[in-house]
Structure formats: C-alpha cells, structure tokens
Design goal:
Elements lengths: L3 E5 L4 H18 L17 E6 L2 E7 L5 E2 L6 E3 L4 H9 L4 E7 L3 H8 L4 E10 L11 E4 L5 H16 L12 H8 L10 E7 L2 E9 L12 E9 L8 H15 L4 E7 L3 H9 L3 E10 L2
Parallel strand pairs: 4-6, 11-12
Antiparallel strand pairs: 1-2, 2-3, 3-5, 6-13, 7-12, 7-13, 8-9, 9-10, 10-11
Length: 293
C-alpha cells in the first residue's frame, strides 16, 4: 500500500470539499433536519493538512490556532478515517484540544476515541410541534425588566452547576453587575431573544431563552429557533418547572411557524444530558475534548 503524503489544505481545498460532501451526505441520511448545503468549499478552513495516498485524497483536518483547537462543524472528513490520526499527529501542538464530530458517524467517533478524546458537549435538533401544557402550579409569561435580579440568580444556578463535578468548568464567574448588564440585552429594542419566565407564588423560579441563531453552517437548519438557555432555581427543581417552560417554548415556536428547534448541552452536566434527550432532541454533533497532562 502506498504511504500517506501530507499537503497544505490551502492547496487541496477542492478535494477536501468533496470528502466533506460525502461525509455530510451520510449525516443527512441519518438526520434530514440538517441544513441543505450546495457548495462545501466555502466551509473548508484555509489552514490544515490533507492526506493523500497514491495521489488520491483520503482525509483532511483543519488547523485552528490557539491553546484550545476547536475546528468547526466542517473541521475534518475522511475516506480513510485512520488517516486522521496521522494528520492530528502532524498538527497537534499545546496541551488542550477539541474536535467537532458527527454523532452519527461511528467510524469518525471511534477514530478520535482512539486518540484519547472524550465527549464533553453535544448539539441536538428536533421538529417543532405543539405540546400539551404542563401544570407546575404557577404561570409562564414573557420576561420583564423587573425580573433582572431573578435572571441573575438563574444564570448563577447553571454557571455554578457547571463548575462542580463532573463538569469541572473553568469559566470565570461573572460579577452581579456583569450579569445584570448581560440580562439587559433580553429586553433591549430590536433584540432577537425571546425569553419566558416561570412564576410561582409571586417568585420567578425558572426561565427559558430562545434565539434565531444564524444559519449558514452545517448545523443550523433554515427556519429554526435555538433553545439557548434554561434554568430552574434549585429549590424548585423536580416540580415540572423546566418541563412546563419547554412545552411553552415549543408551542410558541409552532405558533410562530418555525420548522425545527436546536439545543446544545454539556454531556458532563448530568441534568442537561438527561433532560434534553428525553424531550426528543436527537444528537447531531459531539464536541470531543482532550487535555494532555
């Protein structure tokens, strides 16, 4: 068998785009809600390597600079998945790495698993549909500027949960002033965020935030709404607040004519990784992560 040869991705972007098109065709068979793409070359990054064997392209891997490498949804494709391990060996520097892998492509997932990558993050999608309301003993309404302190509290619930095991997030903690300033974006004129809060006995105990995330990548379908944030105060968890917010958001999305809803979650967040698949979201991509000691 001919040996692998490596070439700059910038010189063989057309061949890389053809491999990406083949990979993505398999993805859309498994998940038809993924967006339709006609031209794949613009999705291929300019930097990286292409592996060839006997003159034919067999794999490519994009190279994004920085301590944590995070190639996009189009960051790699392969006719010979094993060649990705050689490409990563050529490109890897530093001690923190991440790769975005199609969840339905078992060969690609296995390739990165055998390079000691583990699952950290997931993206999911499902069709929008009308769901029956859930009675949690309270009411759901649009967010109001008077809710700012409650929103800060709910943001901290999720942020603090991510810092605990098994997630161990190292994201810096916001001050309350920083969180208030961020929350103010929810009701600014022209905002694209749609936010609902759950109120129980006069207290805001949960919230859910929707956002029409921009399309144009290999993840977000046309006519899609993204479920960007959801949180329930710890003392009220287990009472159906989160489920009530989700069914309300889904009914709203259906009334607005959206076709699909996307969401993402940390696979190491036990609550999220159990809640969202139970709500019908199908995993489209994994973010796999490796840190070298």
């Amino acid at each position: 068998m001919a040996r692998l040869e490596f070439h700059p991705l910038s010189e063989l972007r057309g061949e890389a785009a053809a491999m990406l098109a083949e990979r993505y065709a398999r993805q859309r068979v498994a998940e038809p809600l993924l967006p339709a793409i006609d031209d794949f070359e613009p999705h291929v990054a300019p930097d990286g390597l292409v592996a060839t064997r006997g003159g034919g392209a067999v794999a490519y891997l994009a190279d994004e600079h920085g301590e944590l490498r995070r190639p996009s949804f189009a960051g790699h494709a392969a006719r010979e998945p094993e060649a990705l391990r050689d490409l990563w060996t050529e490109l890897a520097t530093g001690d923190r790495f991440a790769i975005t892998v199609p969840a339905t492509d078992a060969e690609l997932v296995d390739t990165w698993f055998r390079l000691a990558f583990g699952c950290q993050f997931m993206w999911g999608v499902q069709e929008v549909k009308t769901l029956e309301p859930v009675d949690f003993g309270g009411t759901i309404r649009p967010v109001d500027p008077a809710d700012v302190e409650a929103i800060v509290d709910l943001d901290w619930v999720l942020h603090n949960l991510q810092k605990l095991p098994p997630s161990y997030s190292d994201m810096p903690t916001q001050t309350r002033d920083e969180a208030r300033a961020e929350a103010a974006e929810l009701w600014e004129a022209g905002t694209t965020f749609v936010t609902f809060v759950a109120e129980l006995d006069g207290q805001v105990v949960g919230m859910i935030l929707l956002h029409p995330r921009p399309t144009g990548d290999l993840r977000v379908p046309e006519n899609n709404i993204d479920l960007s944030f959801a949180s329930t105060l710890e003392a009220n968890q287990g009472r159906g607040v989160g489920l009530a917010l989700f069914t309300h958001a889904m009914r709203w999305a259906d009334e607005q004519g959206f076709r699909s809803m996307t969401v993402d979650w940390r696979s190491v967040n036990l609550s999220s990784s159990r809640f969202w698949p139970k709500r019908g979201f199908r995993t489209t991509y994994y973010r796999l992560y490796r840190r070298v000691p």
